[in-house]
C-alpha cells in the first residue's frame, strides 16, 4: 500500500531521520520550536532532540546565518529555517559573501554544509513582502546550490540530500505545496541534485514548472489534453545544478518550450533555462519560446489584482495553446481557482 | 616569556616590512592592509589561546594569522598568487586561512566573521569541547548591525568566546568620532551583559594577562563571552605599503605617542643584546626562506579556476 504524507510531513520526517542518524545536524530559526512549528515541518523535533539541537533564534537573520556558517566550519550541519523567503534578504551578505565563497577563497580547505530552508509565502493576501520567489537571486551566485522540489517524495529525498551535501544549499519551499499529498517511503532516501523529472509525457509542447508551478503545469496539461494538445511537463527539481539535458531532449521532440516560474521572469530562472536550451539548440531546431512568472510588479493583496499577478493553470494552458497553434488561435479554459488556494485558511 | 613575545612581535613586523619593500615590484598582486603598529593585539590575545582554539579575523589579518601560528611560507606564497599559498593563490592577502593552526579565515567585508566565531563557539559547547573562539574586528565593525546581533546571541547562550575589538580609531579615513556618538564601545558590550574591558595602552603583556585570565574563566566556569577593546594605531596607510600622514585626515603628532610606545622595541629592550640578535637572525632567515619559497613556487594551473566552487567538480553548464 502506498504511504501518503503531505509535503510538510515529508520535510519533518526527513529532518527527524537525519537528526537521528547524524548528531551534527541542528535546526535553528525563528519559530522552529513554537506551537505552529513552521507549518508543522519542525513539530516535535525539539522534544526529541533537545533545545541545544533545535532552537528558536533572535530576530537576527544576518548574524544567525553567520552563526550557522561558523557552526558548519566547526563540523555541524545546520538547517536554518526562514518562514518567508523575503526574510532571507536580511542574510544576503552572509550567504553570498561568505557561504558561497569560502570554499573557493580559502582554496578548498573549508566546507560550509548548511541548508537554508525558506518558504515562498503565497496563499492569498500575502502582499509585497510575504510572497516573493527569489530563487534566481541565488542561482546567480557560484557556490550555492538551489533546489525547489514540488512533490512530497522529492521534498523528503531532496532535503536529506541537502543535509548530507558538503555545500550550502538553498532549499526553496512553496506554501501552497505544504498541504499536497503524495507517496513518501518510510525509509530514508536521497533524491540526487541535477536530475529533472518528466512528470507527464507529451509531444506538442514542453512545460517546465518551477516549484509550485510544476503543479499548475500538470493541471494545465489536463486542460490542454481536453482540446487535443499534448503537453510534456518537466519539474527541474534542482535549479543549481540544472539538468538541461532532460529539457533539451524534450524540446527537440516538441519544438516548443514554455517555462513557468514561481517568481519574476526578468533575469529569472525561466530566463536562464530558456537561454541554456537555446544555446544548445541554436541552428539545430526551430523552437517557439515563452516565459511566464509573476507580473513585473509588486505583489498586490486585493483578490482580483492578486489573481492577475500569478500565473495559474488556466493562463499557462492558454499560453501553451496559442504557442502550439503558432499564434493563430487563442483559447482559455474556464477559470477555476486552485483548490489549495480557495480552501486555504492558514496558518500563515 | 619576553623572548617569546618579542619573537612573535618582531617576526610580524619584519614580515610586513618585507611585504612593503617588495610591494612596488608588483610581485604581490593583492591589496595589502598592513598590521604594522597593531601587532600587540594579535600577539597578546593569541598567546593567551591554545593551539586548538580558533580565531576569525579581518582583511587586516597578517598579524593575526602569524600570531596564531599560520604557516609563513603559505602566507607569502598566497600574497604572490602561487598555488602553494594557503588558499592556492585564490584568496590573497585579505583571505588568509590555516585551519590546522586555528586561523579560520579573514574577510574583506567588515564585521562578517564575528558571527562565525559565535557559531563555532556554539558548536564547541554542543560537543562538550573546551575550545574557545575569538572574534577579531575593528572599531568600524562596531557600526555594523551584525556586531550587535552577534553579541546578543553569544551572551544569550553564554558561549565560550572572546570578542576582540582592535580599535585603531579609523574606518579607512573616517575617525570614530565622526561615526559614533561616544567612544563607548565597551559600554555597548556591557549592555549585552558581557564583562568588558578597555586596554588603553597597547601593552602586549597586559593584553595577554587580561585575555588569559578571561579565557581561563570561560573554560572553568562556562560563564559566557568576554569583550576586550584594545586601543591600537595603524602606522601605514589603510591599504598599501606607505604612510599617509601627508593626506590631511590625521597627523603625525597623533601617531607619535604610539610610535614611542612601540611594543616591538619595548619587548626588545627587555632582552639582552645577544638573545635579541639571535632571535633577529632566526627571524630574518625564516623570512628569506618564505619569500624564496614563494618566488620559486608555481602559479596555479588554468584548471584551478573551476575547482573549489563546490566540493564536487562542476561538470554541468560548461559549454
How would you characterize this protein structure?
- The complex is a heterodimer of chains A (348) and B (319).
- Helices cover 36% and strands 19% of the residues of chain A.
- Chain A is built from 13 helices and 14 strands.
- The longest helix of chain A is centred in the N-terminal third of the chain and has 15 residues.
- In chain A, 57% of the residues are buried.
- Chain B has a single domain, classed as Rossmann fold (3-Layer(aba) Sandwich), CATH 3.40.50.
- Chain B has a 6-stranded parallel sheet with strand order 2-1-3-4-8-7, sandwiched between helices.
- In chain B, helix 1 packs across helix 11.
- The mean pLDDT of chain B is 96.
Short description:
The complex is a heterodimer of chains A (348) and B (319). With 348 residues, chain A is α/β, with parallel strands linked by helices. Chain A is built from 13 helices and 14 strands.
Jot down its keywords.
heterodimer, A: 348 residues, alpha/beta, Rossmann fold, 2 domains, 36% helix, 19% strand, globular, B: 319 residues, six-stranded parallel sheet, two-stranded antiparallel sheet, 11 helices, 43% helix
Count of the separate structural domains of chain A:
2
Low-confidence stretches of chain A: none
Instruction: Enumerate the strands of the largest sheet of chain A in spatial order, edge to edge or round the barrel.
Output: 3-2-4-5-7-6-12
Rg from Cα of chain A: 20 Å
Strand order of the largest sheet of chain B: 2-1-3-4-8-7
Instruction: Specify the biggest β-sheet of chain A.
Output: 7 strands, mixed
CATH topology of the largest domain in chain A: Rossmann fold
Largest sheet data of chain B: 6 strands, parallel
**Helical residue percent of chain B?**
40-55%
Could you give the count of β-strands of chain A? 14
Shape designation of chain A: globular
CATH class of the largest domain in chain A: Alpha Beta
Q: What is the element string of chain A, with H for helices and E for strands? A: EHEHEHEHHEHEHEEEEHEEHEHEHHH
What does the average pLDDT of chain B come to? Answer: 96
What count of helical segments of chain A does DSSP give? 13
Low-pLDDT stretches of chain B: none
Strand content of chain A: 15-25%
CATH class value of chain B: Alpha Beta
